[in-house]
Amino acid sequence: MNASKIMFAVVTLTVSLAVAAGSDTITTKAKSTFVGTLTNLTEKTVSIITKKGTVTYPWAALSDATIKRYNPVLYDELLVQKRLAFEEVKRKQGLVQYKNKWMKPKDKEIFEKKDQGLDLFEGKWQPTNEIAAIKLRREMEAAGKKEYKGNWYSDKELEDVKETETNKGLKSGMTEKEVVAKWGPPTKKNESTSHLAGWEMWIYEHENSGTQDQITMHNGFVDKVQIDQPLSDF
After folding, report:
1. Which residues of 153-168 are buried (b: 16+ CB within 10 A; e: fewer)?
2. In what order do the strands lie in the sheet with 53-58?
3. What is the mean predicted confidence (pLDDT) over 161-172?
4. Is 57 within a domain?
5. Consecutive H or E run containing 20
6. Predicted confidence band at 207 (pLDDT cuts at 50, 70, 90)?
7. Is the pTM above the cut of 0.70?
8. For residues 131 and 121, is the Cβ–Cβ distance under 8 A?
9. CATH number for the domain including 195?
10. What is the mean pLDDT of residues 190-213?
11. Do the domain assignments include residue 95?
């Protein structure tokens, strides 16, 4: 006895026990319904004893719900057959399966590329982050900006950035408070002794390196910054 026959025998026994407990109902594919007691279940047919007599039907003539209830082994086999038949129809239509969906091969390629983080740009599949970088570069260059260390600046902004880098965070036009916030108070201040009022030299000494930074202030604003100058006595 093969596996399917053994399973069918188990199902038959189960159904027999259920029959003893009460009435059963079977429905045909043609929507005819019979109520009674199941009997004589075989691999090909099933009979039901009704008040009007016994009727016998092949399993193939019964509804899916009836087959599922009384012959689950056959029901599972039918599901497999239906699935295979459905897939064959889709293939004949020229469709392919991707992530449990049927679609045209071109659509599958698109979904696969997008799942890989790619997008179609100017006729070529490219990483989406690279496409974004290309678009940003074109937009910034069209606006007259230049890239510097990953950021985009106008000529004036870039000049300020480079000046700030060169001068350890300071730039022309900063106030005294802004300078102190960046560097702290100076080691010493030298006021101009010339006829030009409002000028000061702020000194930041670095004895370990033997250098000093000098800030020329005018009326409370940075006029000039000189970095790593030799230590002097003035």
Report:
1. beeeebeeeeebeebe
2. 24-27, 33-39, 45-50, 53-58
3. 92
4. yes
5. helix 3-21
6. confident
7. no
8. yes
9. 3.30.1450.10
10. 85
11. no
